Amino acid sequence: MRSYVAEARRRVGPKRLRIRPVIERLASEHPDATIALRFRNDLELLVSVMLSAQTTDVTVNRVTESLFRKYQSPEDYLAVPLEELERDLRPTGTFRQKARNLRGAMAMLLEEFGGEVPLRIEDLVRLPGVGRKTANVVAAERGATQGIVVDTRQEDPVKIERDLRRLVPREDWARFPHLLIWHGRRVCLARRPRCERCVVNDLCPSSRV
């Protein structure tokens, strides 16, 4: 297995030489690759991304359609009983934890940031329920990209992000994760990748073509 992987990597060449053509081809193939969550302002963006943990974007969008009519400010999330907020979040899963995190985040926004969503990663990750992935998404969608969104449970995401930041050109940090997500949904399916129609199959060491 190791010899096969080593041979495959030699065949496609060094990562640094492949990364730009990979990004360019994926961008051409998926010009509509962008965040699937629906929001109208910074607060709704933060809430949507927090709720997206362990559920689908479709579910989050369905829940937030009515949620954002009811809760339009940090104060609104704190004005109702915790049990009521939990009921409103129930379809997103782990709703009790999400409700507690949302209330904690809203309280901190009011106490420390004047009710506004901060822009710096260092400030965002201080909010209850906001990890580095969520912070990176929120910052990038506001045009203040400070890192690369990494979603993995198998290895150290901080190390993976650090490695990617060295490899991916800074101007592509924001769009790179979206390109991978949409390519994974449309072509590089986990159970049955469609390598025969993949635009980067000649640059991929895992290609079956």
Question: How would you describe what is shown here?
Answer:
The chain is elongated and about 60 Å long. With 209 residues, the protein is mainly α. The chain has 11 helices and no strands. The chain starts with a helix and ends in a 23-residue tail after the last helix.
* Amount of beta strand: under 5%
| Unreliably modeled segments | none
User: Roughly how much helix do the residues carry, as a percent range?
Assistant: 55-70%
Determine the number of helices (DSSP H or I, runs of at least 4 residues): 11
Main beta-sheet annotation: none
End-to-end Cα distance, whole Å, is 18 Å
Give the rounded overall mean pLDDT: 92
Please state the structural category.
mainly alpha
Radius of gyration: 19 Å
Order of helices and strands: HHHHHHHHHHH
Shape by Cα distribution: elongated
Count the E strands: 0
In short:
By secondary structure, this protein is an all-alpha fold.
List keywords for this structure.
11 helices; 209 residues; 0% strand; mainly alpha
Show the helix and strand layout.
Elements: H1 2-12, H2 15-29, H3 42-51, H4 57-70, H5 74-79, H6 82-89, H7 95-112, H8 121-124, H9 132-141, H10 157-167, H11 175-186
Helix pairs in contact: 3-9, 6-7
